[in-house]
Design brief:
The chain is about 25% helix and about 0% strand. The chain is mostly helical. It has one domain. The chain starts with about 50 loop residues before the first helix and ends in a 6-residue tail after the last helix.
Length: about 100
């Protein structure tokens, strides 16, 4: 059973609800969901000065900290040969047989 009630949060952060009598003495789950009327979608909300400043704050990275390389750094000269070797090695470890 789902019962939806509308309530207003007071200035001192309290809610007063008048519940149906059939709930008396029962344990209930309470979920608070702000009304969509008062909720702004994040994309439509204006940016704050702090958010804009954080986006424009530039932190350069020294060239030495930039990771470069790839296959060559791993000692791989032919990527196709490397992939075939990886497959062969996996097949041996798992005990698979290949047929050509």
């Amino acid at each position: 059973m789902l019962i939806e009630l509308t309530a207003t949060v007071s200035e001192n952060d309290e809610i007063t609800l008048h519940l149906p009598s059939e709930l008396r003495g029962q344990t209930v789950n309470v979920r608070i969901q702000p009304s969509l009327v008062n909720e702004q979608v994040m994309d439509e909300r204006p940016w704050t000065e702090v958010e804009i400043k954080a986006l424009l704050d530039f932190h350069p990275v020294p060239a030495e900290a930039i990771v470069t390389g790839g296959w060559e750094d791993m000692g791989i000269t032919d990527s196709q040969d490397w992939v075939e070797e990886q497959r062969r090695s996996e097949q041996e470890q798992r005990g698979w047989q290949t047929y050509s």
